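INFO worker-7 received task bundle
INFO bundle size: 2
INFO processing item 0
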Amino acid sequence: MKDRRLRFEERCQQFFYLESITEEAILHIVGQICKKKAPGVDKIRAADIIRYQQIFAPALVRLVNVSIETGCFPDGLKTARVTPVFKGGEKNTLDNCGPISTLSVIDKVMERHLSQKRRHVQTALLSACGSIAMRWRLIQGVHSGAALAQPSRGAA
């Protein structure tokens, strides 16, 4: 695995990083959250985050930026509240229930920022690859965790 990573890094000509988030970006993301979203395990309601966004924004900026800098997603935000929802049939049978997982509203803010940045990185990486064959190898390498294969002679 280490050998493959070294070969990939030797061929890497452009590096990328995730940008830190600004207070304005946090306010924009918070403004897009539905007020009726159910609270997660932390019991923080979306309506409260929206109502007091000027107060919450600096703390959210710090949380997201520290997470990006350290590469660590807070364990507390990985916990979901799971609610069984009846799908039909006999109510006493567990097979007739489906789980609904409710994450923290703070997790949703972080997820939206990281999702936006992931799309930007993907677009930049794909545009840096000249040929369609090279783009395909990049996508396959990213999904499999493997390094990019050397293009064969005569490949487009």
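INFO item 0 finished
INFO processing item 1
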Amino acid sequence: MVADLDDGAGGVALDADDLSAVRDALPTRDEAAKIRAHVTAASAKQSRATGVGPSLPSPPPLPPLGPAEAFMARTLEVRGFAARLEAMAAKAGVPGDVAEAAGRVRAVTEACATVRGSEALRTLLAAVLRMGRLADDDGSGGGGDGVVDSVAKSATSTNAAPATAVAPAAGFRIGVLARLGDVRSADGRWTLASFLVDSVARARPDVAKAAADLARCVRAARRVDLDEVASRLAAAERAVARADACAAQLRDEGDSGGNGAVDGVEAAAGRLQAFVAEARGALASARVDFAALDAEWRRAAAYLGEDAADYASVAELVERAWPSTSGQPGGNGGTAMLTTAAAAAAARKQPPLQLLAPIEALLQGFEVMPAGSHGRALAPSRSR
């Protein structure tokens, strides 16, 4: 069974926890030497008992190996077992890790594209701009009906900008969206945020529903830790590099003697080489996914009127956590120095997905709209 652990067809399927337990059970160099000495002595004793070899006085009986030592002894009989085990660990963990990480990157890319293409968001940003101007106008726009009518007018406008145009956010920095909840009505019962939700829900329930859907999309994207995703991909790339080295070791052991076809070394090396090629292709695709996210993120920043230079870009984050030289033999020290310098500069900036935080703040009220709200009865004004 031990020899067939890495057999993709009829071998024993082990998960990551099983492989970790087996790896922990492998003998150290000293343990291996003692086990080999014990097995050799036991074999010599058996030979004398059966009349094979010279007749010598019988030594004291040897104690039997315990279950753990017997397993260790069996692993020592299999050529390249440690290398096969290392390869199995990579094969068990890398494909799932890479697929999950790439899926999360694509989800964030889709969220950035959805923000740019959302007609509901354009409508809300225009309403915020109009509402803010009228709420600050003590002369003509202070009345509640005037504000509500203006917000409703923005919400029902059919002159929405196309997705390629600059968003209505060009009239203000999107950071103010997170502070709408700080602007309260004169009696303290309303904020501009809740007032907006109520007004839009009554004037355009379809926009309110679309805003709730977009809120969930943006929140899910904001919860993705891109640094952790890139770090996992870097770890997967290192595991693939180790698997490639294991394949080379197996090939060397197959060439060094014995029958590689019989003991499975050649077959194991072949399966491992195929895995390495497939895994490296998946990792290359993940880098392409990150590049696509960086491009879409930059487009979203421009659309929202933000300067991308105020943020650490996705590309900078990836280069810090998953350098382009990782997993490759002879990584360039100069590149590592440049990466370190870039990482230090990026650390002083906002993380890239902070770009979506004000949008999340604007939209979150639409997910749970209070029943029986009547925005027309209250006029927002700045609390003193």
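INFO item 1 finished
INFO post-check item 1: The first helix runs from residue 16 to 25.
INFO post-check item 1: Residues 138-169, 329-338, 371-384 have pLDDT under 50 and may be disordered.
INFO worker-7 idle
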